[in-house]
Amino acid sequence: MAASAQASASEKAAGPAVSGFTPASLEAQRKLEQHITRYPSSERIRADHRFLTAQPHVAGTARDRELAEWTAAEWRKAGLEDVRILEHEVLLPYATEVSVEMTAPKPWRATLREEPIAGDEDTETDAGLTYHAYSASGDVSGEVVYAGSGNPADYDWLASHGVDVKGKIALVRYSVPYSYRGFKALTAQRRGAAAIIIYSDPADDGYGKGKVYPEGPWGPESHIQRGGIVYDFMVPGDPLTPGWASVPGARRIPAAEAISLPTIISVPMSYKEARVILEALRGPETPRAWKGGLPITYRAGAGPATVRVRVRNDDKVRPIWTVTGKITGSAEPDRWVVLGNHRDAWVYGGVDPSSGSASMMELARTLGAQAKDGMRPKRTIVFASWDAEEWTLTSSSEWGEQYEQELREKAVAYVNVDSSASGPNFTATAVPALNRFIAEAANAVMDPATNVPITDAWKTRGTKERGALPSGAGDDLVNNRLGSGSDYTVFLNFVGLPIVDMSFDGPYGVYHSVYDNHQWVSRIGDPGFRYHTAMTRLWGVMATRLANADLLPLDYRPYAERVSEFLNEVERRWPERRFDVARAANARFAAAAAGAASRGAAALAKNDRAALSAVNTSLMGAERGLLEMQGLPGRPWYRHQIYAPKPTYAPEVLPGVAEAIEARDAPRVAEQEQKLAAALDRAAAALRGERGRGTVNR
Ligand SMILES: [Zn+2]
Questions:
Q1: Is 389 designated active site?
Q2: Helix, strand, coil in percent for the chain, rounding step 5
Q3: H-type alpha helices, 432-579
Q4: Second label for 261, Cα 20 to 30 Å away, from 87, 137, 311, 605?
Q5: How far is the CA of 402 from the centre of ligand 1 (A)?
Q6: Using one digit for the tens of pLDDT, what is the confidence trace for 414-458?
């Protein structure tokens, strides 16, 4: 009694709650976290960031390779073990020609170039052609139709106003809330457009939001958002090796059979140049929602503006490079905590992804220094620097496919940071099993601007001041609606690991443009690199807690609550049906989650190592159990039964059931409900410690 009262008093004195540790190991963990608070240097992070962003480093280029070698060398210096550069050969077509020419009502040729800005020399060097990765090659001409955000409903409006898009050039805007550009391309392709031009309207990420770069964070008039348009919501990774790794000599399918490759030509454009075309359109005035921030009357066309669009790609298979390194665990080396960030950028990648790469480099130094000082984690921490994320989440998908079996046996969780800092607003997206873990970690790290815990700063800042990108905005600290758009996808949807994806966000209108560079970050996004440093600390606290906790900080009780909410949602979309089979399975999942939590608490209280090990193995099996190995109908790569991305990249919950409801296919709804119930039962069996497909080998 006295001892435990003392322990809890000293815990209170030492800091806020941390789940999963015995008093003795918590004391060691707190020491470690003091080091994680002190060690990271914002000056080193700034220097690394300057180096990472010194030149454009598109995936597969010489500079990308140099940065892979630099990353490996720095990790070795930091003390990481087994550092290696793994090569995959993937379809990575570079554009060799991109042009947009107006032929009527007057001849005009778009430059498709971003203008230099005085005082920012990075904008003065030629950053190459601006293009959409995986656009089809071709040469087409046609009248232009302005189709708003390019959603299916927008084309329906056009059709109802007598505007036909077939064989024409669709002009659409990037939109807020963010909708994946590949969805716009797919929609235009399905509607029979000959090509699509996607431009950045000033209302979305330019002067309509606030001051533009170099005065402020938003996009100047000539900024162009590059990006992939690949249909990676069907299958991510190399389009020619769907579901298996692109190791040298791997079997490849013909490009014509690759379901993720678009067949439409697509080109990105600035608002400065799109305005010329928009001004030349006649036809009906558009709905209010389509009107952007340009001082013009937005009309739909078709024509009389007529343009010729040409795109030529080299269609080459190129090498890309994943860098991995480890800090081998002292007690459980065959349990892995995997941390990842992508390295490749569309140009300099100031925020996306070099902010995250700089934070991760400093984390490697921080944890490497601890290991050298004898503070080695109990479980192994694996670092990964991914490549070609910007193309189709490529190297993480290939690596996940290659090491699928090993990951399924060994990995505890995957922690992703793509962009670490474009501002001060903490956002996290994760599976519900990690909600409490994330809240506790964010509570242990100070917000640099206010010097209160990140969780408190998050409460006072709320959700204002968001960028133009998808984020965890919502009423909860952790967003449990997972879509896609970064490297966690393979780990969640293909391997079945608990994942978290996090960043510090702010107003940010230069995404995938030449202006997303060192100066933008150091002057506007994160002066002093304080949030980069906070991310290093937070990531370090998370990594070491996952690696050192006696009881793994995975709690499936909130997961069952979320599934129950998701079931309510799908029921509302098919009110004539009750999802009793899935509900009953979810009740068993909830009971098993509660059982695992109480077994874990009892084992922790007694510091019963055998019991803790058994509960940890159960907890690791639960997420695996939620996979259905045949995958979702039509997209077998996506196996998770609770989460999948929609073509918009928006999250889709209970995807098998939800898509069957969308198709109004009653037998398929019933069949998918059975699969969902079976997945929940596998997760429940894992949580009860029963061996089966969901369970993990010891
Ligand atoms: Zn990124």
A1: yes
A2: 40, 20, 40
A3: 435-443, 454-461, 489, 518-519, 530-548, 557-573
A4: 87
A5: 22
A6: 999 999 999 999 999 999 999 999 999 999 999 999 999 999 999
